[in-house]
Amino acid sequence: MVSPSQAPSQTQQPAAGTPPAASPPATSPQGGVAGSGGSAFGAQAQQAGLNIVVLDPAHGGTDPGARGTGGIRESEIVLDLVIQVRRALELQGFQVVQTRQGNENPSFDDRSATANAQRGAVFVTLHISSTGLPGTARVYVNSDLPPVADSNGLIPWDRAQAPFLGLSRAFGDVVQGYLTQRFKGSPDAAQTASVRQLRTTAAPAIAVEISSVTVEDRADLDRMAPGVADAIARGAAAFKPSYVVPNTRGALP
Amino acid sequence: MTPRWKFWLIGGLLIAVLAAAIYFPILRRRVKRAAKLQQQSEEQARRELTQPIVINPGDPRVKTKLFWASDTIDSTLVPVTVELPLSNDPVLRSKQVLNTLLAGPVDAELRTLPPDALLLAFYLLPDGTAIADFSEALATSIPSGIVSEQLAVNSITRTLEANVPQVQRLKILIHGQEVETLPDIWIWRKHLSSTRSRLNRRRSPRQRNPAGTNRRRQRRIRRLLRLPDR
């Protein structure tokens, strides 16, 4: 079970290298606005906004993900891509948390737990496909999930995404819009798919998948990285005003 | 011990060593053969269990919609209508359509499921929940990526949805086990839309209009991207 509005005690600190000026100084990952006097347990509903982006480079460790004929490995490319996305997001003033820093493979639940431990965060998992039109990028939001039974303010872990699907779709549509401007042939709006990392994430969550590892030269994918990074960063900035997190315990978006 | 006894003992030991030297290679060959036979039997048993459902020519021939990849639009499914003699029994009918789907289209490039994947078992619960158990190839041989995995699962669910009205939900297992990357359960669109239609009764006709919803969604995206309205 996961509480959507109360951060668990285990929180992931943003990785080193974040420029102090780029980080929102008054906001703590645990939630709320530091010094505002608001309490997560208080009756007064405080409002917190989007300030953290959790980036999830898919696969890693013993799982290389999609593999191309030229020795291209999805797990390696997404890790390089994350560096550029991170930089672009920090320029927009977001704090960035990564689910993995190197060649390791955290479990799906660990990746979701990293996002669920943040307040006011969005989750972006990055993939490279082995099919699809090369040079295009697609955004996915999770397929419809059965409604959440909400008697005590807790969401079942494997349905954590359910209350956030509307927000995820809005976020996904914006990012997809920017990606389509850059990469012709990409769809106009976010698609739905069952993506394991998204299902257990209690935050607006999207998967961005770039096509594909079938390119002959890795440089073709590397050239897409700045455009993808810019689209995600601008998308997060555009989505920010529409994401208001209620500070009341157990409250859903 | 007398020298005579020593002679017999040494002789006996020599004979035993000689017999072992002859017998061990034979034994090794037999063990290898037995292991091979066991492997074959397992494979044979699996094949017997998963042999294609015999299509009874006496069954009524019905137009069957099978969903394979589109050859014109990238990463989408299209229904292909074929006439098949299908059983009226929902379990047998489901097995027949799924096995036809697994057999693949004429153009192998439009396959959505791996050619070596097998349907091991299929059950239908009274509440309309179907459980389809596939061989491991379904999980391991699909090209990596959200698009290809989604196409594979959607081709199964949409084919069942189109041809077996009794099936309302589907749970996919691989060798009897749940797979983390597959969702808990697939619920048909029609099931969801019937739930939604109950909710929509309270909404205005404008809210129920899907074309309007799409236009609003497109306008919202354009507004967020700061593009002029079309």
The neighbouring-strand order within the major sheet of chain B is 3-4-5-6
Task: Report the CATH architecture of the domain at 49-87 and 104-189 and 199-212 in chain A.
Answer: 3-Layer(aba) Sandwich
Share of helix of chain B, binned: 40-55%
Number of helices of chain B: 7
Over the alpha carbons, how many angstroms does the gyration radius of chain A reach?
Answer: 17 Å
> Which geometry of chain A do the CA atoms define?
globular
Name the helix and strand elements of chain B from N-terminus to C-terminus, one letter apiece.
HEEHEEHHEEHHH
Average pLDDT metric of chain A: 80
Count every beta strand of chain A, where a strand is a DSSP E run of 2 or more residues.
8
Beta strand % of chain A: 15-25%
Question: What tags apply to this protein structure?
Answer:
heterodimer; A: 253 residues; alpha/beta; Aminopeptidase; six-stranded mixed sheet; B: 230 residues; alpha+beta; four-stranded mixed sheet; two-stranded antiparallel ribbon; 6 strands
Topology:
The complex is a heterodimer of chains A (253) and B (230).
Chain A: E1 47-49, E2 52-57, H1 74-91, E3 95-98, H2 108-116, E4 121-128, E5 137-142, H3 165-182, E6 191-193, H4 196-199, E7 205-210, H5 218-239, E8 244-246
Parallel strand pairs in A: 2-3, 2-4, 4-7, 5-6
Antiparallel strand pairs in A: 1-8, 5-7
Chain B: H1 3-49, E1 61-69, E2 77-85, H2 90-103, E3 119-124, E4 129-134, H3 137-140, H4 146-163, E5 169-174, E6 186-187, H5 189-200, H6 205-208, H7 210-224
Parallel strand pairs in B: 4-5
Antiparallel strand pairs in B: 1-2, 3-4, 5-6
Helix pairs in contact in B: 2-4
Report on the architecture of this protein.
The complex is a heterodimer of chains A (253) and B (230). Chain A is of the alpha/beta class and 253 residues long. Chain A has a domain at 49-87 and 104-189 and 199-212: Zn-dependent exopeptidases (Aminopeptidase, 3-Layer(aba) Sandwich). Chain A has 5 helices and 8 strands. Chain A has helices at residues 74-91, 108-116, 165-182, 196-199, 218-239, and strands spanning 47-49, 52-57, 95-98, 121-128, 137-142, 191-193, 205-210, 244-246. Chain A has a 6-stranded mixed β-sheet with strand order 3-2-4-7-5-6, with helices on both faces. A two-stranded antiparallel ribbon of chain A has the order 1-8. In chain A, helix 3 links the parallel strand 5 and strand 6. In chain A, helix 1 (74-91) runs parallel beside helix 5 (218-239) and helix 3 (165-182) packs across helix 5 (218-239). Chain A is globular, with a radius of gyration of 17 Å. With 230 residues, chain B is an alpha+beta fold. Among the domains of chain B are: 61-187, no CATH class; 194-224, no CATH class. Chain B is built from 7 helices and 6 strands; from the N terminus they run H-E-E-H-E-E-H-H-E-E-H-H-H. Chain B has a 4-stranded mixed β-sheet. In chain B, a hairpin with a 4-residue loop joins strand 3 (119-124) and strand 4. In chain B, helix 2 packs antiparallel against helix 4. The longest helix of chain B has 47 residues, at 3-49. The termini of chain B are far apart. The model of chain B is unreliable at 189-208 (pLDDT under 50). The chains are: A alpha/beta (253), B alpha+beta (230). The interface between A and B is medium-sized, with 39 and 25 residues.
